[in-house]
Structure formats: C-alpha cells, structure tokens
Amino acid sequence: xxxxxxxxxxxxxxxxxLSNVFMTLAWYGHLKFKSAPLVTVxxxxxxxxxxxxxxxVPANRIGHGTYSAAELKTIQEVITLIVFAIxxxxxxxxxxxxxxxxxxxxxxxxxxxxxxAPL
Length: 119
What we know:
Oligomer: single chain
Strand content: under 5%
Mean pLDDT: 93
Low-confidence stretches: none
Structural class: mainly alpha
Order of helices and strands: HHHH
Helix content: over 70%
C-alpha cells in the first residue's frame, strides 16, 4: 500500500465517519428547516444519502478484509453515536443529558464484547 494512504484498519473507520456525517445531515438536518415542505426535505435527504452511500459502500467493501461484518456494523454504530451527539449539540442546540451518556456508554460496552475474543 502506498505510504500516503492510511493503514488498512483505519481506512474503513475514516470512510464510515464521513458516511455518518452525511447520513446525520440527511436524517436530522431538515429539523432546522421545519417550514420547508416535506417532499422537499425528503428529496434533499435522498440526495445527501446518495453521497453517504458513496462512502459507506466502499468502507464496508474495503473494511471486510480487515473486520468481520459484525465488527464493521459495530464500528458504524459507535461512530453514529459520536457524530449524532456532536450534531445534536452543535447544530440542533440540544443538550446531552446524563441519561443519554449512560445509554451511549452501555452501547459502547456492548461494542467491546463484539471485538473481544469469544468468552
């Protein structure tokens, strides 16, 4: 692999992060534009989701050589929580509560077991 490319284990993580930024915008960005017609936000969201797929599909194709499908899905879910938490606070101006943090922590604990060797 050329030295200017990230290592094989990192490439799918970076692509999944980009994918999740676009998907979060597609799913929740329209909440800032509640006066826009629903059909408009659906069509705009589809366009944004297309870009998301352009990152997600290669992330999973490339990543499956390094990670199992279950590990890729787990990575994606943890990234989703991080991206969503940041988006929720920065764009939607919504506070994360202790309950949110506890719930997210439990999900991350579940992710730990996906990557842990069999018990």
